[in-house]
Amino acid sequence: MRQLNKKGLDLIKKVEGVVPFVYLCQGGYPTIGCGHRCIDGDFYLYGNTVEQIEYRILKNKELIKVKNFKVPSSINVKELTTISNEDIDDLLFKDVEGAIRDLEHYFKESHLLNDNQYWALISFIYNVGCHAFSESTLLQKLIEGDFDAVPTELNKYTYSKGVELTVLIKRRKLEGELFMSK
After folding, report:
1. Quick count: other Cβ atoms within 10 Å of Cβ 140?
2. The pTM is what?
3. Looking at the domain covering 6-11+95-180, what would its CATH class be?
């Protein structure tokens, strides 16, 4: 398994953003840190379920400023769920390690990828999940050795819940450019 790479982690942080409290991502899912989808039992929920936190956000939803962007959350959820930068990095590393395992499990020839190709795919898998990657034509193109087709395949994943999102169009463009760079 490859080691975590600063360029790859920086890409994920750039496209996900860094939010130290639970908010609703553009797909509508309760999320924290660098795109970590909340799971019942996670420490920062303090015994609340994801459904309870989502209800609190929806009940008192407002846009809360984080650096140069705003995210939908609520003041009481922000106060309850704020985590440290160290916690954010820990969640990110854990999630990225899962994406690495998924890539290496489904694409047995991942050692043939250069670092840019590898990390572009890790960013993609981190975002869409193992299931979507494992059933994708993108994976089939990789297995066939058709690396030139990867940017086009990435661009098929710009929708969330049936709605095309500008943020995903931009992300796939960055991933495709990174994949094709030397």
Report:
1. 12
2. 0.88
3. mainly alpha
